[in-house]
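User: New here, please read:
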Amino acid sequence: MLALAALLFVAAAPPAAYVDTGSAHVRLGITSWCWDTRCGAPLGRTGQRVLVSRGTAVRVELKFEPVAVTANVAGARVRLMTHGREVSWTATGVTIRQSTGFPDEPATHLRVVSGSARMAVRIRLPGWLAGPARAWVNGEPLPGPHTPGTWLVIERQWRPGDRVDVSLPMTLALNRTPDEPAVQAVTYGPVVLSGGYGGVESMFMPGLNPGSVTRVPGRRLRFQATANGRPVTLIPIARMQHQHYNVYWRVGRSS
């Protein structure tokens, strides 16, 4: 699925939905596991331990890093929100750099580092957005609507120092498992959240009170919730380290 998704990413004129197609694979493989310094993918469970495939993590980076931001004769195309990615359009000498604090910051930023040319910059507006995006060029708002699941296309004469800012509104959601609707995972935008349980090695699947999930004030993504009548902290799964954690919850019963 990673290889197929990468091929879809670099199709000649791909609909933005291609990147969201099979989003369970792309979301879990990229967004949820590789936004932080720790990168891995769930492989399986043995006894009370979850195995994590570091080889899959390397493959994720190799497959998707080259296509996060690309440029060709049609212009530049931004597919993934990844910090520090830079692309140069050799035909014109234009270099564009992307910066973002995503997923803590629901936005991404592009800056022309060097070169000048008239070209189109296409930015993917993911299908998981909670509503229309907002966009600015050099501080001036671009008229919308900027609909989720489409490309934001900005064609103009670009010069060094030009900047594009795009908001990426996110919201909490519950994602049901296909075979058991009462078993659900909590996501914020495309990010899967996990609940930390410290040294507690095993337990029956906790019953989550979905109405109790609230954002903790601060720069980094962190939520508080109640499961089985006890408080639990939810953070992006890529940041869950050195403790037992839970990703799936039983919803729809007393919690």
Notes: The longest strand covers residues 117-125. DSSP finds four helices and 20 strands in the chain. Helices lie at 2-9, 17-20, 23-32, 54-64.
